[in-house]
Amino acid sequence: SAAEKGGYDYFMLKEIAEQPKAVADTLLGRIDPSGSLTLDEVRISPSELREVDKVVIVACGTAFHAGLIAKYAIEHWTRIPCEVELASEFRYRDPILDGRSLVIAISQSGETMDTLMALRHAREQGSKVLAICNTNGSTIPRESDAVLYTHAGPEVAVASTKAFLTQLVACYLVALYLGQVRGTKWGDEVHAVIKDLSRISHEVERVLETMEPVRALARSLATKNTVLFLGRHVGYPVALEGALKLKELAYMHAEGFAAGELKHGPIALIEEDLPVVVVVPSPRGRSLLHDKIVSNIQEIRARGARTIVIAEEGDETVVPYADHLIRIPVTPTLLQPLVATVPLQVFACELATARGNEVDQPRNLAKSVTVE
Ligand code: AGP
User: Fold this and answer.
1) Which atom of ligand 1 is nearest to the CA of 62?
2) Does the pLDDT value for residue 186 go beyond 70?
3) What are the pLDDT digits (tens) for 295-332?
4) Atom 9, ligand 1: which residue's CA is nearest?
5) 311 φ, ψ (degrees, to nearest 5)
6) How confident is the model at residue 185 (pLDDT cuts 50, 70, 90)?
7) Which of 52, 249, 266, 297 could bridge 352 with an S-S bond, Cβ 3.0-4.6 Å?
8) Which residue, judged by its Cα, is nearest atom 8 of ligand 1?
9) pLDDT of 188 over the 80 cut
10) 211 Cβ contact partners less than 8 Å away, ≥ 6 residues apart
């Protein structure tokens, strides 16, 4: 009913709008005023966590994209090697697991069969499993050794939005917690990141306030057949997520690429007026990556692409090459997906509406996939 949708036309719009609160709720009570983390729910002891020599993340769809981003954070902040695998592929390739592997299963519903079978396989090999889940008491957390709940509240729309942002927050918390427990890289950078994380819901709010031009752009592309998405580093999974949202909602051909791979094939796809969304990393810090992606934007634009550039406020180098410029707030590199994904959700939702599609119930899809 309209009341359930809180005055919005679709659950998806309501859930997009709820993201600042969902992000804040997922952080609530988990960062103490001194800047250290208390994750009491993680019932895997600090001594066991100190023994971990490999992290393996299993998940599907949007949750898998959260896992891809988590890898960057876990490896950077903890120096523990981390693999990310599609849950549906995991157990069929005889993965190398033992008692020192920590397996993280990410799932909004907690009922995804592929993810459940992957975690069962991991536990059979003696690995500890930590679930990151949004649904209290669902099967995946019940069968795991520990669970960190995301507090996104119920997500009704089939296309995942607020669950994704809170999965990212939970992944960052796990990465930082592992770092804290193991004493690795626990320096100024980590404290600064924790501070930024506790402010991030305001930044998500600011992004939401500036989405009207994104909606107008989406409407203007309603008759296109293809949209490509490019990113690097954590922007690469963001590109994959932008493409998945567009497939699910707009039923358009959409693909995400690592921008560095363009020259190895995908650049052949570029033609006159093809919309290409580019997620630009911050010009601070990893500035080499920034410069490389700016050259990618120039290359595709020279071949006729219509460039839709998502870039940090104050990044002026991209301006001459952006046919459409979407600004996002300045964040630490690893946290950028929390703000960069939001315009892509709004973009896909508006395109679906413009194409007359059912936003909350896309064709052929179910909210939770309980078959393998
Ligand atoms: C996302 O928009 C999808 N509908 C889908 O990819 C989803 O993320 C995937 O099926 C995993 O679901 P889960 O998080 O409930 O396990």
Assistant:
1) 8
2) no
3) 999 999 999 999 999 999 999 999 999 999 999 999 99
4) 61
5) -140, 155
6) low
7) 249
8) 62
9) no
10) 342, 343, 346
pLDDT at 286: 62
Asked if 152 and 134 touch (Cβ cutoff 8 Å), the reply is yes
As a whole number, the mean pLDDT across the chain is 95
Instruction: Name which residue sits closest to atom 2 of ligand 1, judged by CA.
Output: 159
Span between the terminal Cα atoms of the chain, in Å:
32
Specify the higher pLDDT residue, 192 or 64.
64
Instruction: Evaluate: CB of 60 within 6 angstroms of ligand 1.
Output: yes
Whether 63 is in the pocket of ligand 1, judged by its Cβ within 6 Å, is yes
Q: Which residues contact 336 (CB under 8 A, 6 or more apart)?
A: 234, 235, 238, 279, 281, 282, 312, 328
CA 341 to chain centre: 7
Report residue 92's pLDDT band, with 50, 70 and 90 as the boundaries. very high
Q: How confident is the model at residue 38 (pLDDT cuts 50, 70, 90)?
A: confident
From the alpha carbon of 109, which atom of ligand 1 is closest?
Answer: 15
Q: Measured between alpha carbons, how far is residue 234 from residues 34, 201, 281, 332, 349 in Å?
A: 28, 19, 8, 11, 22
CA distance 121 to 105: 12
Beta carbon of 341 within 6 Å of any ligand 1 atom: no
Ligand 1 in reach of 115 Cβ (< 6 A): yes
Residues carrying an active site annotation: 367
What confidence score (pLDDT) does residue 230 get? 98
Instruction: Round to whole Å and give the CA distance between 146 and 333.
Output: 29
Q: What angle do CA 114, 119, 122 make, to 5 degrees?
A: 130
Tell me: pLDDT of 36 over 90: no
**Most informative mutation of 64, 108, 147, 251 for ligand 1 (most atoms within 8 A of CB):** 108
How many Å lie between the centroid of ligand 1 and the Cα of residue 33?
Answer: 34
CA of residue 139 to ligand 1 center, whole Å: 15
